[in-house]
Amino acid sequence: MPHQEPHHHRDRRDHGHHHRHQSSVPEFRFSVEIAVLVRSRRFEHKTVEALQEEVGHRLALAGVLNYHIASGLKSENFKDWTIASSLSVQSRPREHKYGIKLVSPYMPFAWFDVWKAQIRAVLHVLNNDFETTTQHQCGTSIHIVPMAGYWHLSQAKALAKSAVYFESCLDRLMPLYRRKSVMAKSNRWNPYFGGLSPAQCLEKIEAQPSFQALAARMNWCAKESATGIALRKKDDFQHDGFRWNFINVGVLNGHSPIEYRQPPGVTESSDMIAWISLVVCFAQMSVANADTLKGTRTAQLSKLAEMIYDQAKRANVPRASLIKGLVEQADPPPAGAKHDRMVLAWPDQTNITIDDDQRLRWREKEPSIARDKYWNLVKDRTPTEPAARLRW
């Protein structure tokens, strides 16, 4: 087991829905990671490196600063987009289609015009100069960190509580394959939280004494799970392939982004903007209402949507209606559901495909580009020192 369960710091407050009381809401910075399947409209590339080079060239012509890892350059310039192979997306070389990912620099969420222009430019190039498609293996990851450059433990706990409590609501916004993806497993139904009620989950999260303990609970994977078997684990372990990835924030004592991995692959700028806005507003809402979340009732998407819309208004998010568009497309809850589980069979307790087995092992070799970008943004990389001295 990753950690012994602490017997202190129990939270005896009443838990249920959020109320209107608000704590201080931090501003956030984010990086978005787009994993898609791409084919050139002009050339029949025989290697992914050649495709990456063309993507980089086209982005540069569109005014988007970038580099691709195949060029041999290091990620020292944290202000640029990064183009890299995605081992999680199966390439089809005979069709000249390759799985790649594009990782943005960390951008202040409040600089709406700046980052939205970047998103539109990148996706315009991908759609205009390339055939860009999504498949079940594609996904979008959003990495968030307070503008101060680090999380307070109370802030990370607040996000963890909302992530677990509202998981079934967010699941309804996802296509079925993203609810069952072994690359975005359920935090709520992991081996630690799976046998607990929502209120008990929130109590356990509040009781965690450190970032390390919190990350272990949120990303706990059993050795006998499909993931553990695929990776040949001999003991329970932490795995980053959950809906919310807290591992780096645990390793680096709060001085790291937290990653939301569940959104599907996206090729339309309006959809990408909607997902980014939803995730950041969700995090802000979680921190703002940290002391008032209860777990005595089943989470409701309508209530969650109302709180996210309210936060979007407070943050002056332009075109917050895009978030409403995601909610309006939500699937209905399971008929007769009396609990907070959206998907009755979740991936790590069922057999996975040979492809997923291979992808899990391939992905172990992939560097965390977004994490490295964050650390290239930080002058003093000593985790025990305050991370306020950032090159913003």
UniProtKB/TrEMBL annotation:
Biased composition (Basic residues): 1-22
Record region (Disordered): 1-24
Domain of life of the source: Eukaryota
Coiled coil: none
InterPro entries from the UniProt entry: Amidoligase_2
Stated name of the protein: Amidoligase enzyme-domain-containing protein
Source organism: Apodospora peruviana
Lineage: Eukaryota, Fungi, Dikarya, Ascomycota, Pezizomycotina
